[in-house]
Design goal:
This protein has 1 helix and 5 strands; from the N terminus they run βββαββ. Helix content is 14%, strand content 40%.
Length: 84
């Protein structure tokens, strides 16, 4: 039987948006997310988070945005001893 472990992380968006503009990340019900306006630091910081977690075997399950923070839910296969 396949077993999973889960992790929830919270990430503050880097840098403030340019004066008079607000960064918006919207996700639809299918889990597709869209960046609107410009992120102060560009999307590279988010790619780095994905890269780091992926190297440790984590897969992004869901991402939520609220008040300049991203909440990410991750999962990965749980190591079990003595089972194939």
């Amino acid at each position: 039987m396949m077993r999973w472990e889960y992790q929830i992380t919270v990430h503050k968006l880097p840098n403030q948006p340019p004066e008079g503009k607000e960064d918006v990340i919207e996700c639809d019900q299918l889990g597709r997310c869209f960046f609107h306006a410009t992120l102060g630091g560009g999307p590279g910081w988010l790619e780095e988070i994905f890269r780091e977690k992926g190297e440790k075997g984590w897969e992004l399950v869901q991402l939520g945005y609220h008040d300049r923070e991203l909440v990410c839910i991750w999962k990965r296969r749980k190591e079990t001893e003595g089972r194939a």
